[in-house]
Amino acid sequence: MEARQRYTACTLVVEIVAVLLGLLFLVPFYFVIVNSLKTFAELLTDPTSLPTALQWSNFSNAWRIMKFPTVLTNSLVITVLANLAIALISAMAAYRMVRHKTRFNRLFFSLLVAAMVIPFQSIMIPLVRVARTVGLFDSIPGLIVCYMGFGAPLSVFLFHGFVKSIPHEIEESASVDGASAYGTFFRIVLPLLKPIAVTVILLNSLWIWNDFLLPFLILQSPDLRTIPLATNSFFGQYTKQWDLALAALVLGITPIVIFFLAMQRHIIEGITAGSVKG
Question: What is the H or E stretch that residue 248 is in?
């Protein structure tokens, strides 16, 4: 009886507050979806109301103007390849740092952690100059390399904490059976890193897919534009096509929202496991 009263007095209130906060965070989605189905005049007149008539032509026009198949392919290629490279390199680096605790590895890990607090705005101009010099400017491979550099610190940090929770005896058994260092990592350690690897890929996917500033600085050719860059084309110096821009936003966020909903259960699992200290 006491437990039931305690739930009624405290837990129920917390649940109600949580639901209200959840609805509050859904308000931006409401405005984007509802206004993407309005005419431009209706959108400016009353952006909070439901549309009087569904303007599905906004989506077809946005699809055509922004060349959605092309920009979707560019975003997919950049996100997938950058994610795979970041996850693999970061996992190997973190494994080496944990299992070989040399002075250099400790210093390198400290530098990676320190790099996480450096604001991107302070280095974006030197980054563009370096990208031009080494041939990474205005190319998708060059943008992927930049994402690898910016995504590695946090990814290594997460993998580093997770590797500590893996018993060293498993690797010793593999070495006794004749496995090489690379064989031990790829056959034994890497499968055990799946929870944190999924978390790293998910977090980096949300960042890379929605990023605007770095592609804006590196990519100049119209055929190389990503979804955020293509959406920005609806805002010119003298015109702002809000109806088409909001439809483009819906088209752009749909793939990543589906991916997030399918993989969200791995976030807490991976981060919690990665916080274990050995």
Answer: helix 242-263
What distance in Å separates the CA atoms of residue 193 and residue 185, rounded to the nearest whole number? 10
DSSP state of 167: -
C-alpha 33/C-alpha 56 separation (Å) is: 11
State the total domains in the chain: 1
Residue 267 lies in a domain: yes
Instruction: State phi, psi for 180 to the nearest 5 degrees.
Output: -75, 175
Alpha-helical (H) ranges within 66-180 are: 68-99, 103-115, 124-134, 140-163, 168-176
Record the tokens describing residue 160, joined without a space: 């580093």
Q: Model's pTM, two decimal places?
A: 0.86
pLDDT tens for each residue of 12-71: 888 889 899 988 988 888 999 999 999 888 888 888 888 888 889 999 999 999 999 999
CATH number at residue 234: 1.10.3720.10
In tens, the pLDDT along 204-250 reads 999 999 999 999 999 989 899 999 999 988 887 667 888 899 999 99
Spatial separation of the C-alpha atoms in residues 273 and 199, rounded to whole Å: 11
Q: Answer yes or no: is 120 within a domain.
A: yes
Of residues 214, 225, 220, the one with CA closest to residue 127 = 214
Identify the domain containing residue 183 by its residue range.
Answer: 64-274
Tell me which DSSP letter residue 122 carries: G
The answer to the question of residue 49 being in a domain is no
Residue 52 placed within a domain = no
Q: Which tens digits make up the pLDDT trace of 100-122?
A: 888 998 999 999 989 888 888 88
Residue 270 neighbours by CB under 8 Å, 6+ apart: 158, 162, 195, 196, 197, 198, 199, 200
